[in-house]
Amino acid sequence: MGGRTTWNQALAAAMTEAGDPGPVLARAPDAAAFDVEFYDGYGGEEGPEVLAWTPSRVYFPVSYDGAEWLGSAPREPRSEGQAHVGGG
Prior knowledge:
By secondary structure, the protein is α+β, with helices and mostly antiparallel strands. The chain has one helix spanning 7-18, and strands at residues 4-5, 26-28, 38-39, 51-53, 57-64, 67-74. The strands form two sheets. It has a four-stranded antiparallel β-sheet with strand order 2-4-5-6. It has a two-stranded antiparallel sheet with strand order 1-3. The longest helix is centred in the N-terminal third of the chain and has 12 residues, at 7-18.
């Protein structure tokens, strides 16, 4: 982390990490928010507030000490719990 990025780039990385083949079904507030370039390194939150849905997961912004990335959680109930998000 620590460079210029967009939520579209972060979403692709988060989907790969989650093993989520997609497709992306919806984006909030809109697709344009995912194209906004921002610095994702430590310091302050710069990325817009967003959400994205695929058939299996929902993606949301996570921040720790100003570093930003997308976390995700399953859309459907499952037997195992959700890992902690953020922190370090």
